[in-house]
Amino acid sequence: MRIFVVDYAVDKFLLSATLAQTIPNNGGSVTGIATLGNEMFVVCWVNNPNIQVYKTDTSDVSIQRNISVGAGSNTFRGLAACKFNQCLYVSEQNAQTIHKVSPVTNNTVKQWSVNGQPFGVTVNSAHNLLVACHNTHKVQEFTTDGTMVREINLQPDITNPAHVVQLRSGEFGITQHGSVHRYCVVGGDGKIVKGTASGQMSSPFGFAIGKGGTKVLVADYANNRIVLLNSQSLSVEQLPAAFRVGFSQPYCIHLDTSAGVMYVGNYGNGQIMCFKK
């Protein structure tokens, strides 16, 4: 018998958090947010070949420095941080490339190609990188040096995967576009275990899962909102009023319940909204 524990950390955070800060547009449409220590890292969609670095332990929300990644018209779609390897991973759509970046030396230390356009990227419990390959309907897993661990072919109706997170069960949470717009749970064989109903979301991109694993927060891009899901039933739950605010095509969510902060990156106006308890 499986016993599910309520995700108290997320529940308490959602009940007590308010919109504390809005960081203005500093480079374009936000497509990736990550944190390491007391620094927040941000990437934007195009024409800004930099990772913007902010301090999270100060009221000064200005950019502290930039880390150059590539050159020219980059098309960044995702950003992930690995505490274990002390590095950042940036996905570049058009070049079909992953950049591994050091926040210490402030440069790219390695890059490698992927099978298709890389969108959302995350780090799993094995400290490996997961990549949602948007136009080839695959999920790829790599070690920190770019060696492929496995490639999962998603079932045919999982078109245009936008983001992927490995769950405690070993299965994968995935958002997808195409003929169906939804969040679904997929097994290691690429087949859907369960998914949200059709019409509940429109162009969902990034999502975050609570530490307890029972709550999923999805950036419902085209509906200009954040959707809260129960991860077992995938039913939609009511968000507190503090989170029903004026999002502008929310694209990515970074949830840090230990620090009591949730960051939402908006594609439409380029703002970052910081919710704190």
List the helices and strands and how they pair.
Elements lengths: L7 H9 L1 E6 L6 E7 L2 E6 L5 E6 L9 E4 L7 E7 L4 E6 L4 E6 L4 E7 L4 E6 L5 E5 L4 E5 L5 E6 L7 E6 L5 E5 L5 E5 L5 E4 L8 E6 L5 E6 L4 E6 L5 E2 L12 E7 L4 E6 L5 E5 L1
Antiparallel strand pairs: 1-24, 2-3, 3-4, 4-5, 6-7, 7-8, 8-9, 10-11, 11-12, 12-13, 14-15, 15-16, 16-17, 18-19, 19-20, 20-21, 22-23, 23-24
Describe the structure.
- This protein has a domain at 28-218: Methylamine Dehydrogenase, Chain H, CATH 2.130.10.10.
- It has one helix spanning 8-16, and strands at residues 18-23, 30-36, 39-44, 50-55, 65-68, 76-82, 87-92, 97-102, 107-113, 118-123, 129-133, 138-142, 148-153, 161-166, 172-176, 182-186, 192-195, 204-209, 215-220, 225-230, 236-237, 250-256, 261-266, 272-276.
- Mean pLDDT is 92; it is low at 1-5.
- The chain is built from 1 helix and 24 strands.
- The strands form 6 sheets. Strands 1-24-23-22 form a 4-stranded antiparallel β-sheet.
- The protein has 277 residues and is mostly beta strands.
- The relative contact order is 0.17.
